Amino acid sequence: MKKVIVTGAGSGIGKEFTKLFLQDGSRVLAVSLVQSELDQLSEDFAFAADRLETLQMDLAKPDAAEALLRWCHENDWLPDTLINNAGFACFGDSVDLEPARVANMLELNVITLTMTSMLFGHEMKARRSGAILNVGSTAGMVPSVRMASYGGSKSYVNTFTYALAAELKPFGVTVTCLTPGATQTKFAQAGGIDTFNGKSLLHNMFEKNKAGSPAEVARSGYDALAKGKIQALVGKGSTLAAVMSRVVSQKHLPRLVRNP
């Protein structure tokens, strides 16, 4: 029976990934910062109670990846598939954001994702089998104001994942980058988009419930992972972002995308 780790599993895209893998018969370790969300998972997915395990852990802490790997060794839970979904945004002009909050975001979005990919990928390479999916973003393709640090973190995730895929392919390990557009999750609430009072396309999109479906995003990633694809591009604005990133110089994009 396949073992799958899903980080950020308590809600949104991570919860949908958890559901998909439980439905296909896998065993899932759902990792989240919020215990109440994990408790809700156990209720919502009672049909697979014997295959769902939950773990409350703050993955934004230094050495979180090592702690997760250590837990897996101690509990005989080395995964066949790793879904690096945990992450959040900081929305606002860069110099006005709380530095500690931005540092926390970068620790989670960049450092923990990198270290889990490396540590679990190392074991998959030794076994010559396994799969990793990292959740990047179209925000990493198009630099835009008020999303500078978040977009930078996701640009890193995108490029790191593509390179990792090339490195691990000869060893039977597939690596997929899921690059969704804006998705209707707790993203706006966690990032401060929902309370922003200025002119913002993102704020309007989330407020009017017009962002993409987390179920659709997770399904796209799940299918791409199953086929061994390197990228899954999905969601509102994703095609436009991909085109803009190819035809417009990055130095000009922030002036064109004025009100994210």
UniProtKB/TrEMBL annotation:
<comment type="similarity">
    <text>Belongs to the short-chain dehydrogenases/reductases (SDR) family.</text>
</comment>
<protein>
    <recommendedName>
        <fullName>Short-chain dehydrogenase</fullName>
    </recommendedName>
</protein>
<dbReference type="InterPro" id="IPR036291">
    <property type="entry name" value="NAD(P)-bd_dom_sf"/>
</dbReference>
<dbReference type="InterPro" id="IPR002347">
    <property type="entry name" value="SDR_fam"/>
</dbReference>
<keyword id="KW-0560">Oxidoreductase</keyword>
<dbReference type="GO" id="GO:0016020">
    <property type="term" value="C:membrane"/>
</dbReference>
<dbReference type="InterPro" id="IPR020904">
    <property type="entry name" value="Sc_DH/Rdtase_CS"/>
</dbReference>
<dbReference type="GO" id="GO:0016491">
    <property type="term" value="F:oxidoreductase activity"/>
</dbReference>
<dbReference type="Pfam" id="PF00106">
    <property type="entry name" value="adh_short"/>
</dbReference>
